[in-house]
Amino acid sequence: MTPFPALDIIKSLKSVGQPLKRKEDERLITGKGRFTDDFSMPGQVWAAMVRSPHPHARIVSIDGSAAMEMDGVLGVFTGADALADGLGQIPHNPVPSTNFDVKLTGRGGTPVYIGEHYLLPADRARYVGEAVAMVVAETRQQAYSAAEAVMVEYEELDWVSESRVACEPGAPKLWDTMDDNVLVDATFGDIEGTDAAFAKAANVVEMTWVIPRVTGVPMEPRAALGSYDAETQRYTLYAGSGGAVRQKHELAKVMGVEPAAVRVLSFDVGGNFGTRNRAYVEFGLVMWASKKLGRPVKFRAERSESFLTDYQGRDLVSKVELALDADGKFLAMRADNLSNVGARCVSLSPLSKGSGLITGSYDIPVATLRSRATYSNTMPTQAYRSSGRPEVCFAIERLIDKAARELGYDRLELRRKNLVSPEQMPYRNAVDSLYDSGEYEKNMDRLLEIGDWAGSAARRADATKRGKLFGLGFANYVESSIGSPKERADIIVHTDKGIEVVIGTQPAGQGHETSFAQVMADMLGVPFDDVTITLGDTDVVTAGGGTHSGRSMRHASTVMALAAQDLVDKATGIAAELLEVPADTISFADGLFGVPGTNRTLGWRELAVAAAEKSPEGLRVRRDNEMHQPVFPNGAGMCEVEIDPETGGIDITRYVTVDDVGRCINPLIVHGQTHGGIAMGVGQALWEGFPIDQGSGQPLAGSFTDYGMPRSDNMPSFICEIAEVHSPTNPFGVKAGGEGGTTPALAIIMSAIEDALLPLGVIEIEMPATPLKIWSAIQTLRAGQNAGENA
Amino acid sequence: MLTVSMTVNGEPVSRDVEDSTLLVEYLREALGLTGTHVGCDTTQCGCCTIHIDGISSKSCTVLAAQVEGRSITTIEGLGKDGQLHPMQEAFRTCHGLQCGFCTPGQIMAGAELVRTWEGPLDEHQVREEMEGNLCRCTGYHNIVKAILSVHAETRGKVDA
Amino acid sequence: MYPFIYRRPKSIADAVKLFEAGEDASYISGGHTLLPTLKARLAAPTDMIDLAALPEMKGIEETDGGILIRGGTVHADVASSPLVQAKLPVLAGLAGSIGDRHVRHRGTIGGSVANNDPAADYPSAVLGLNATVITDRRRIAADDYFTGLYETCRENGEIVTGVEFPIPLSAGYAKFRNLASRYSLAATFVVRTEAGVRVAVTGAYNRGVSRPTHFEQALDADFSPEALDTLEIDPEDMLSDPAATAAYRANLVKTLARRAVARQGVVQTFK
């Protein structure tokens, strides 16, 4: 790994590292946010979707005549209509393909069959809730009422929802051209070496873990407002997303036009977490309808539609085996990971990202991994908060817990003796991921200190006195940040309103307007207040990778640093002209250009004015950057829980983390990301789940009535500390801070529950570990104990 | 159709709307006050929280017609005379918001809680009283901090 | 929601007239049960008759029979009423445990009792305390009022104008909340009266709010948690759903009854 060369532009950091209050808050706390549904256009009308009630059904016919008779209805559109109009498929580009992504393939190295994704299917509905037609009417109420009147004749087909059934030969098939539903089946690692290590191992531990499906639940339901200007022949789309530039290009392909004919505006986005990383059919549908009807068309999902048809997360089955020597040293690992892609292949990111991290924080010399993905009649899945990493972290951390328990080791000591050490960095793991930097044991020790691990025995005794079962949970984690490799920054020095940076990331709460301004302010030597960040309008933001996979600060700070360097060079030239000295006598410091030894200095505004006099472009630069080297945020976490054995009710009484995010630009923001990330992981462990009724194929959690959420009264306050081990891969040394809270949380909580029940015995509880499941587990263990006693 | 009149953020307003118009629709669509948000369809998320005569309510579960003649405060009207309300300030200072979508509801709920709560207010009580306001971004830690800080500073003496 | 005509009556009598004149009318009070139902497009009333602002429907007062709470009184007002806190604190506590803070600012006792949601809190207090349901046309004893899941003996259009609660010797309420909806998976209201112990259970029975009389008999003989040790709740009588099996609910009913007995005078909320 070649470290990124140091950049002169990064010198004195005044704003960077400070917990500055956010710029974006001013509008958000006063109700002036600009979320998609806040936009309206004159003459706009509303779209509603006709959704399949069946998990798998051939569309025999669609009769919209009754709907067309209803008040306000302007049109009924089907998949056949879309094909007739030449609309294309959404080019999801689901196979991760950056240089360092694990290369997933079909069986025998064949290409992955990615199926089809038209805006509306003409052949079959492949999951409950799939839109098969669109109704447009004057009001939203009218559109939804009319959607109920569209008569769709279906021929129901056999369906399958569970991945372990769907991947078997003979399971109901989603795609006719495939032999079965398995689109990815690839094996990685050193098979011979692994087999040899297992053969001579003193001990082998194995387990099959299920990390069930959840859904992202951003608080803003997805929405889109599309309009078509017949004169300019341009589409305009307001739609909150994870990357307006990407969606502009994708939707242009769908509509069959050049990208320049599409403008996407994504301003304030009410949470993403991965759910908005790919375009939704409604985005293209409102664009299409607006052209056909000559009026802007708006769509806003009901929360029930969000539950049913937001791109969902997780749903992995992982069979893992660990080989150890007689002293507890990890010798080898095997993993067999099966990912449920759902009905359409939107993104294989979770399977791919997870594949690179199966060995976690530990020095495991050889491993073999089989990665499979299967189609099923469920909502398509894609990246969701730490895409793929919580799953594999759970698998290895919980397997180590099992090994410790069965082989008689202390679970911390067994981990400690196998951690990757700082001396081994950069460390290439057994599935070829190159960890850039990290001090794993130091973070673990710090975590145990600030979490008062040593004091837990006393807290356990106290809880026991109060009739509660006390559980102590722990996990290490390492996760990866790869992401789209390209980013672009424009820096414009205005003559009258400070410095503007245009960049192609897409925040949904991560505070880019603030943290990016901190970075730029320090590099250009200007006050933080003088820098504004422009995002989200593709007519202004011409290129960019969006926000996902923790990529934003790393890519943005790097391209901004390179652009700032270019800008300083350009400004130096202008200063030299104005001061009538050679350019190499000019130095730049603290935001001023001058000749050392003289008192003649020029500031940014003066140079901008001078530049504006010479050309309309003024003082500005554009810089593109491409970076492929991933980084590996890491850390450790612990929690304490108290379980009421009579009800199964569980209380989290302590939750502590140490997170190595690389350089921390704004600790206020990074802590916030950790907090939110923890809540998402805890939510999956305890309350969230998207079960499918095996009799009918119907999803059972369609609203907050059934889908449990982290709330203020079931979450604890946290103790979180940031560790900064700078990454050599980029000039600021940034790793990422957005997903480390989630990555170990599943393991931390489930290990705590296991610890709490240990006096009664060991029993696997599948997430979410609801009170019902915990109580039932206790009953089973007690019955087992009684049986044992009576035997 | 009905004519529904009320006072919103101190201003009298009157609009002709469908009988079934919800208060949140009246605010967002009839009045263009888009600061109040719709996050769910089962009255469980709290993004739509506003004040009716100073008392917190979910505007998605009130018919506009039901508050004829009443005084409504939305996030746009919480501050007075161009000054931010202490709860708005506290959310910013404590980083109690990220994407901002649930934020208006959280601030309105927090402001009403602090104004009307009698006696000491601890973390446990704040967490209980705020259970009706979902947030997916913050994990609630900083929201609770913000509310406790306002209570500590003002001991509930703020007009909301 | 499907469209409807909103009607604002001037009195209770006026409301009943408007109801009868409507094609398929519905009353609205706090709206926190009805409006979600309408938003889900599960009902389409033609007329929406608003009881919420009727002055006749507001107020809490002491009567010879105990405490009268008029049907339009919101939960928050019951929870904070000095009278209820003094005379029947568990009822105030129960009202203060309904839904969330914002729901309590709008939801009414009349709506709750009229609807008889199987997981609602008030029905257990009404049945447990042997309260009297007062309508626009009669007074109904609690034991006669609740007739099944979502069912009451109300006639079509009959309005619950108030509930009169007798003051017990002591009372206690213990509930266990669904982790998502926050409705009760089970809740028990345990009351000691001059005439004996009453136990009313909501959230759990498949026939709606019910009294496990074998519990009452045991507690009559010995008012202690241990008195219930050898008794069971029959899972056959319990609701069963993905959040809570019948066996689990049966366990909760017994556990919560013991806890309500052990701590009279307070509301205990578990989750």
Describe the structure.
The complex is a heterotrimer of chains A (about 800), B (about 160) and C (about 270). In chain A, a hairpin with a 5-residue loop joins strand 13 (about 310-325) and strand 14. With about 800 residues, chain A is an alpha+beta fold. Helices cover about 30% and strands about 25% of the residues of chain A. Chain B starts with a strand and ends in a 6-residue tail after the last helix. Chain B is globular, with a radius of gyration of 15 Å. With about 160 residues, chain B is an alpha+beta fold. The longest helix of chain B is centred in the C-terminal third of the chain and has 14 residues, at about 105-115. In chain B, strand 1 (about 1-10) and strand 2 form a beta hairpin. Chain C has about 270 residues and is of the alpha+beta class. In chain C, helix 2 links the parallel strand 2 and strand 3. Chains in contact: A-B, A-C, B-C. At the A-C interface, helix 4 and helix 20 of A face helix 11 of C.
What labels would you give this structure?
heterotrimer, B: 160 residues, alpha+beta, 5-stranded mixed sheet, 5 helices, 16% strand, globular, C: 5-stranded antiparallel sheet, 4-stranded mixed sheet
Q: Kindly, what is the distance between the CA atoms of the first and last residues of chain A, rounded to a whole number of angstroms? A: 61 Å
Order of strands across the main sheet of chain A: 3-5-1-12-9-10-11
Instruction: State the helicity of chain B in percent bands.
Output: 25-40%
Largest sheet of chain B: 5 strands, mixed
Along the chain, the helix and strand elements of chain B come as EEHEEEHHHH
Strand order of the largest sheet of chain B: 2-1-5-3-4
- Radius of gyration of chain B, in angstroms, nearest whole number: 15 Å
Q: State the shape of chain A.
A: globular
Query: Approximately how much beta-strand content do the residues of chain A carry?
Result: 15-25%
Unreliable residue stretches of chain B? none
What's the tally of helices of chain A? Answer: 20
Uncertain segments of chain A: none
**Arithmetic mean pLDDT of chain B:** 96
The structure class of chain A reads alpha+beta
- Biggest sheet statistics of chain A: 7 strands, mixed
